[in-house]
Amino acid sequence: MSNIIIGTAGHIDHGKTSLIKALNGYEGDETKEEKQRGITIDLSFSNLKRAQQNIAFIDVPGHEKLVKNMIAGAFSFDCVMLVVAANEGIMPQTVEHIEIMSLLGVKELIVAITKKDLVLKEDLELQKNRIKNFLEDFDFDLKFISCVSTHDEKSIESLKEKLFTLKNTNKTQENFFRYYVDRVFSVKGIGTVVTGTVLGNKCELDEKVFIPHLNKETRIKNIQVHNQNAIEANISNRTALNLQNIKAVDLKRGDLISKKGFLRGFDTLDISFKCLKGKQLHHNRTYSLFIGSKKVEVKVLLFDSIASLESGFATIKAKEPFFSIYKEKIILRESNHTIAGGIVLNCVNDPMKKSQKKFLLKSLDEADYKQSYKILLDAHKKGLGLISSAQRFALSHDQAVEFGKNLENVFCDEKELVIYPIETKEYIKKQIKDIYTKNKYALLSNAAIKLRIKWASSSFIQSVLDELEEEKFLVKERSLYKNANIKEDFSKNLEDIVSKRLEEENLSPTAPYNIYDDLDIDRKLGDTILKSLCSKKQVFRMQHNLFIHANSLTKIVQEMKNIIKEDGYIDIKNFKERYPLSRKYLIAYLDYLDNFSQIKKVDNKRVFLSEFV
After folding, report:
1. Is the residue at 362 inside a domain?
2. How far apart are CA 343 and CA 326, in angstroms?
3. Which of 300, 304, 285 is nearest to 354 (CA)?
4. CB 235 within 8 A of CB 200
5. Residue 12 φ/ψ, nearest 5 degrees
6. What single-letter DSSP state applies at residue 292?
7. How far apart are CA 60 and CA 56, in angstroms?
8. Residue limits of the Tr-type G domain (predicted)?
């Protein structure tokens, strides 16, 4: 089915809501206050359907004090229907609404001149020309102008026919589902329901979705598209979602629902902006930011701390995280006045110098991803993750990897979705060479090296090991790498080295993994060596991760027997007085005494059996 969202725009009391009612019979002013005051206060949603075509209407308030509500709806417009009363013409909110549409990048525009029955035919033509002249200052694709009256059914039907000729050409499918909440409520027996417009990509019944600000995943229990149950909702569908195990009080207008793993939150965004004619943004000043249906107070920081600008780059900072995407539109207002519109360029807060940031924003503004990658790689020497490419560049993982592979002087790990600058490979190569130069008996695997260089992927490390093998610096034996200059089989040497290390550590041996890492021995190999030493009774396992050399064990057992002879018993207290070791060692050695038939345990003490005293 073809879906298009048409939003109204125009001055208060120019007949926006009445026109929607004439088109589809929907009474937009539902609340008691709206009916009493005769104005639209909040957004209202309805639709007009014919065969495989569906037009969703978002009716917005026209009052100047309610522009914030109007903006909340405007972000999802595919087309704007500018409503101008024939007897009044262009008014202040007509201008502001059109300026906002222009800032948000809405391209398609239709004009409905209402109340045509209140003016002469000549005046109607005059209004048409005035509106055309007014719109010439903006970059809209004007589809048509219709003159209507809610008392003239023929004019309404004519407008309907024209509306059904419109096609949704603006929305392109993105890499993942996004959905800004514009209403939330609870239905008895049903649970929490949210309404909004589907952005980015579709959602499906029973699918899991993610609420970033709650850091919580939930399931879609039911979908309604224009009040009809559905198994999925596509881009530009006005959609109600029934969410599982989510309380209505935990959600509000402006909250985002998406898919897990795609969006990270940051309290800053880097933007490009353009002010309305005669307006400027001021450095370090607070503004109201509108993004999606969300409104939040932010501080605007202009680059180079310039006092004020009509256009350029800026960083906006808030007290809560944004879960934004590349090229997302924003509006900045101050004291009920629209000041500027902008585009999110950098939604991921990277640690980088200001000079780097300016070049990055310029490349992002021009969609020069190749240059953007280069700048980011310069700031991410330890690897640039491509997992965030959907958020950062609006690229799929496949597209991001393709870009990475085509860059010069980089290593692209397609599996882990990370790219590394080539100089980082030289850094890792030096780290590995240093290990084997300092310790000629080093015997390590890829996994063992990764434990030391945790930020590097296994594939990246392997590429370095392969080069060192080609350079004949290392030799690979099974999965282990040894110094190519050592020709003899030094597996027996390694047993001696581990045994000697344990003997040196005496009664306070460190955990095996720490010993292996210290000796530059692969952990799996180290475990094999330790098992061999245990089978030869050169080393004894006292408990998990506690191994002691046989000589040390013999000595401490004799010392414990001496304590029993002197004091009549041994326990943790008198043992520690003579040997101030860690409690874990003392307990392990005391427990070992239970292996001797002449010693028995009485409560927490060990004593000799009477016949051995």
Report:
1. no
2. 8
3. 304
4. yes
5. -60, 140
6. T
7. 13
8. 1-171
Q: What confidence score (pLDDT) does residue 31 get?
A: 39
Q: Which of 161, 124, 228, 165 is nearest to 23 (CA)?
A: 161
Residues whose CB is less than 8 angstroms from the CB of residue 456 and which lie 6 or more positions away in sequence, other chains included: 382, 383, 420, 424, 428, 450
82 lies in the same domain as 184: no
204, part of any domain: yes
Secondary structure (DSSP) of 44-68: EEEEEEETTEEEEEEE---SGGGHH
Domain final residue, candidates 197, 232, 257: 257
Instruction: Specify the residue for token string 């008895």.
Output: 188
* Residues linked to residue 460 through DSSP beta bridges, in sequence order: none
Closest C-alpha among 543, 570, 548 to residue 559: 570
> To the nearest whole percent, how much of the chain has pLDDT over 70?
93
Please report, for the domain that includes residue 339, its CATH number: 2.40.30.10
In-domain check, residue 504: yes
Give which of 427, 486, 417, 484 is closest to 461, Cα–Cα.
427
What would the pLDDT profile of 377-422 be if each residue is shown by its tens digit? 988 999 998 888 899 998 888 888 888 888 889 999 999 999 999 9
φ, ψ at 152 (rounded to 5°): -120, 95
Token look-up 């598209």 returns 225
How much is the mean pLDDT over the chain? 88
Give the mean model confidence (pLDDT) for residues 277-298: 93
Does 185 lie in the same domain as 99? no
User: What is the predicted pLDDT for the residue at 59?
Assistant: 79
* Structure confidence by residue, pLDDT tens digits, 414-441: 999 999 999 999 999 999 999 999 988 8
pLDDT value, residue 324:
95
171 pLDDT higher than 70: no
For residues 49 and 21, membership in a common domain is answered with yes
Please compute the mean of the pLDDT values over residues 144-155 and round it to a whole number: 93
Read off the tokens for 579.
Answer: 């040997």
Q: Which two structure tokens, joined as six digits, stand for 300?
A: 């605007």
Range of the domain at 324: 266-346
Q: Is residue 445 part of a domain?
A: no
Count of structural domains within the chain: 4
Q: What is the rounded end-to-end Cα distance, in angstroms, of the chain?
A: 96
Q: Angle at which helices 523-535 and 512-519 pack, to 10 degrees?
A: 120
Phi–psi pair at 403, nearest 5 degrees: -60, -45
- Find tokens 């009256």 and name the residue: 149
Which CATH number fits the domain that encloses residue 93? 3.40.50.300
Q: What is the pLDDT of residue 42?
A: 43
What CA–CA distances, in Å, run from 167 to 57, 78, 153, 162, 339?
A: 14, 9, 24, 11, 31
Same domain, 70 and 200: no
Residues 250 and 151 in one domain: no
- What was the pLDDT predicted at 68? 67
pTM of the predicted model, to two decimals?
Answer: 0.79
Mean pLDDT calculated for residue range 532-554: 94
